[in-house]
Structures are given as structure tokens and as C-alpha cells.
Fold each of these.
Amino acid sequence: MKAYLFPGQGAQYPGMGKALYDRFDQAKKMFKASDEILGFELSKILFEGSKEELQQTRVTQPAIYVHSVISAVAMGNDFKPDAVAGHSLGEFSALTAAQVIDFESGLKLVSKRAEAMQKACDHTQGTMAAVLGLEDDKVEEICEQTTGLVVAANYNCPGQLVISGAIDAVEAACETLKAEGARRALILPVNGAFHSPLMDPAKQELAQAIDATSFSDPICPVYQNTTAMGVTDSIEIQKNLIAQLTAPVRWTQSIQAMIDEGVSEFMELGPGKVLQGLVKKISPEVMVSKMEF
């Protein structure tokens, strides 16, 4: 069995998508449609813009989504997933690839998500930190004991967990984590506390947009971040997608669940190669590859 994986924010790089644009007519059409839907020239920023321009949340999230979905489309009849999953933002790419939502609807939702998250960041003082070298339950325990809001946000692989919350609480937790033996507890260069309760205002906005969007049952199970289980019911998918903004990304658990249910090969689609590395740390024996264009 083969699963396809789709990356989240942070996988972007200047020039991404140009090879797809040059090689496939369908890619040209989809980039043009993206520019029209978004109301700005995403393709121009991707192909000619600076790293700084690409790092704006309103650009980054649509950019990764568009690149990822076009990558799946470019595979044509070779794209035959037994399962799909996406890391955070990548879940929208996975849902589009699994025919739960169409490309245009997915892009509108991603754009709304980026806009809502930026607004939430502007109104709250939040941050995130990467914690390396401690067991998940120890990190969870320290978060619970820390004064203020700090929670586990991304279970990326064994020994790598990202925490999220109010700046003071995250900084305090980092000091305790290092004292308790963490190899690193490093504040990340982000301007918000993603996958924490501080994203609640964004969740409410996104919920309205999701409720107004047509969802279909997927062509294969979608392993969603919030449950780390394969979901095939469109109503359940919508609920999990709304919950995802304030709930942790259970990536380690999702990959392990797919392996337990028979997946032996993973292919990453979209920009970057982060997910390949995480899968190898979760389960070194499985096959992992990247579709390059």
C-alpha cells in the first residue's frame, strides 16, 4: 500500500513551481486560476519574488497548497493513493488530491485560513518552540506544569515535538525542558501560537468558510492531524479540519497508524523534503520517496 504526503508551512522556497509551470499545460492553467482567485499574482511572487515576500502568511499558505496540488495532478494516472495525509496546512492539499474538495474551493479555504490566522496572530502575543531529545509525555507534563498557556502543538517524530502558546509561558517551558534534559528547546521564528487555543478566533472564521464549502467523501482514507486516523466520511472530515487550528498535529501517530494498517511506501508531493525525513525517523524500514519535477 502506498500513501502520499503533503507538506505544511515552512516548505516554501523562491522559484518553486517554475518547473511544473514550464512542463505542464495544466499547471499553467492552475497557476493562472490561482492568480485570479487570490487577487494577486502568486505565480510572479513564486517565480520572481524574494524569500521575504514568500514568507508572508497570505502568500506562503496558498503557494504551498497550489504547488502540492499541481504536483499530484501532474502525476496523472500514476496518482493512485491508498491513503493520504498532510502536515497542518498540507491537510488541505491532501483533501484536494483525494477529491474531497475541488482545487478552487481548497484555495479559497487556504486563503481564508491564512488571513484568519494572521488576524489572530496580530491580536495575541504567541510563539512556538521546537523541543528535541525528550519523550512526548515528559514534554506534555512540563507544559501542564508551566504557568500560563503552553501546549504540545506538533508531534513531528520521536524526540521532536513543537510546543505553542503565550510567549512568556513558552519561554518558561523551554527553560524547564532544557533543565530536564532536552537536547534543544529553541524558540521558532514565527509570529503566532499555531495549533493552540490562541488560534480560536481564526477557527471560528474558518468554520464559517468550511460550512459554506461542498465536501465529498474521499477516494481513499485521509489520515487527519487531529485524530491520526483514516477518515472516509466528509462530515467527519469537516469537523476535524475545523478542530485542526487549535488542536495538535499528530504526525508521528498518523504515520504509525498508516503503517499499522498496511502502508509500506510513502511519497512526498509538493515543495521541500521535510516529511521524508520525519517518516524515516518514525519508521526507518519503510520506503520513502519524493516526486521531483
Note: The chain has two domains: 2-122+197-290, 125-187.
Amino acid sequence: MTPPTDKRLFVLDTNVLMHDPTALFRFDEHDILLPMMVLEELDRAKKGQSELARNVRQVSRFLDELMTDVSQEGIHQGLRLPRLNPREHDAPSGRLFFQTTPLNEPLPAILPGHTPDNDILSVALALQRQQAVTLVSKDINLRIKAAILGIHAEDYYNDQTLDDVSLLYTGVWQAPEDFWTQSGQDLESWCDQGRTFYRLRCPDAMHWFPKQCIVLPDDPLGYLVQQREGDQVLLERLTDYSLPHQTVWGITARNLEQNIALNLLLNPEVDFVSLLGAAGTGKTLLTLAAALSQTLDDKRYQHIIVTRVTVPVGEDIGFLPGTEEEKMTPWMGALMDNLEVLSTSHEGGSWGRAATQELLSSRIKIHALNFMRGRTFLNKFLILDEAQNLTAKQMKTLITRAGPGTKVVCLGNIAQIDTPYLTETSSGLTYVVDRFKHWPFAGHITLRRGERSRLAEFASEQL
């Protein structure tokens, strides 16, 4: 096992492959080495129905395909790694090496024992005697120990959608003071079925996205980008849901961002909506109000499907008895709280509220995320709560469940991620916000102003 010295050599930790099975093919022309301990850990983690177990089994299948019809000599020389992008098929690619000989570099006495992490560090330390080595791991503690031993270690960055979360698309563009001076020369405006449209030319339109909201300094409502060709754009004036006669299931918008959210949620031309925001900004309440209005009043959807990731904040409460919906009840506290607000906003006394609660329970279905694979939802309003705890692969699995007539809404706060190895820049919610911003049937808005209470708003800012 003598990898070429003109390429960088990356030693992969087990958690990198568990997190992203395609990591094997994401190091371009550089070489990869898998210590034997990594293969042992993969073998121990392959059983079960969890996402990690499925990822491990996918890694094993990738390795099995790479080793098809490869001789022992070929294994020693390294397995050629194909490129993921077919257009880069002819580009130089790296090779995959396995630990085929003992590489037991003695570790300092400060790292006693034969833990898996120490074995991987020992292999990296031995290889470093021959060439430059980079240890890639999602485990912060392992990277710290590697740095203490003088081994260059890095996080796995290929799963990150953005370099900085501050670059994430917000769904809003603030127009300058002289917007109409620059864009009002070729302005056309008309009304169609109660909707107001404007066609104009704007130099900044080249940087706008479909369904993005354009906020003007002298207009409290804003405009939605419907079409764009070069610097020519078609804008639609937003509906004002802050007015008393424009309530949505008894709810009115309390700020500009909530009004934008309701416009996207109630727009039948928008199939996918993502709402980001801190606690108390109204993500769940607005979504439920829009879902009930379109399901019960407009009959646009048959049922409302609600699901979320069951990642506990503190200690896990253990086994839960009952049906799938009963097991999900403890995780749906936010849903129940908002349903109580929506049911009490309707008049009719205690009998009317009880009838409303019974009606809502018959039209809202709660499903566990674990059983979504293979399903197809037709004419449903699908709400995915706490979406920041999903990986990009899990997000793809869920959104592809949508059949004809189904609307998908993803809610979350990327500042509150509970899933191990996920960060703000690698969260599945960040991934879909960035990937869907170019699609004309998707909308996004980041809610920044809390509307829960002055106590909650102060706690969110100061604690």
C-alpha cells in the first residue's frame, strides 16, 4: 500500500460515511484511505431501520461495486473512484486505499487504550511519516486530539450548502429610495380578477428570484415576482391579510413578513413553501390557518398531514404505547397549542368550539417521519415541522412523497438544531431553501419579528 505522493491523502472517519455515503466520490482528484477500524465500525452499525443504518448499507454497496472484478494487486494499487458528475467523467480522479498492513504507530501515553478513535489516529500518525495526511471527521473531539498529535484534521465540508449562514436566501429584496425613478419609465399596470400586476424594467431584476418579495420604501405591502426575463419583470401586488375583513381562519398578519408568508401559503400556484424563523414568529400558526382555510373552506386539499423529526431536546422519554398517531402526540405540542388558538378564534360558544375541535381532528392526520418512505400523498397539505433537524437526503425523501395537487410546507429554526453532526450550513432545511429559490413554483420567507409576547421576545434576544 503505497499511495502516490503527488496527491493529497485523506483519512476518513466512520461518521463521515455515516453522514454522507457519497463522500467516497467527493474528493475530486485526491486519494482516500479507509482504516480497518472504519470498516469494523461500519459493520457494527449496518443493522436496523434507522437512517444511519441505511447510509452504512449504502456505503457497503458502493465499496462492493468498486471491488467488483478487482484483484488483490489492484486493491493494493488503489481502487479508481468515479466522478459523481457525468460531465466530469474524464477529469482526473483519486483512488481508494484500504489499510492492508499493520500501521501501529505508538501513541503518546496521554492517549491510553485501544478505542476506535485512537486506532484511527494511530493509522494517520503512521501515514504522516510518509506523506502529508489530512484526517476528515465530523467528530470535534477527534479533530482536537489529532491537532494535539500534530495531525492536520478537517471537518467534512462537502455537505454544507453555504459557506456562511448569513448568505442564506431570505425571500425579500429591499428596494432603494429611487426605485420608481429607475424603473417607472416603461411601467405597465393592470388588474385581473382582483389581482394587480405591474410589468417594468429594472437593472436589479437580474438578481431577483421567482416568488421573491420586493419591498418598496413607500409601500407597506410589497410585490411578488411572478416572471422575469433579463431585466424585465412581472410583479403582483400582495394581498393585505392584516385587514380585519381579510382574516385567514380568524388570524391576521401582524407584520410584513407574516403577510408575505400568508400570501405564499394561500397561493395555489406555489407548491413548496419554506418558513424560517425563531420561536414566536408565527410559523406554525400561520401555516395551520392557511391549511385549514384551504382544506375546510376552499376544499382545495383533502387532508392536512403533519409530521416532524422525533429528536428529543433532553432525556428521551422511552417507549410510547398506542397507535402511530398516539405515539406522535407528545411531539405535537406546538400543533395542539396552535389548534387551540385557531378553534377558540371562531365564535359559537363552548359547543361550537367542541364541534370545531372534532372537525379539525378528523381532517388533520399526524404521521411519524419513520414511515414516510414509499408513500405518495395526493391533494394533501403536508406540513413538515422542525425541518432543521433533517439531513439533505431525508428532506429529498420527504418532498418526493408529494403527488399531484399536494402542497409541502417546511418550518424550522436553523439556530435550534438537535441532530448530531448537523449545522446551520449543512441542515436539510438550508439545503432546500437554497435549491428551491430558482424554481418558479416555490416560495420562501424568513420571519424575524417575534409576535408571541414581550416576555418571549425579550428572552429570545437576551438569553
Note: The CA atoms of residues 285 and 338 lie 6 Å apart.
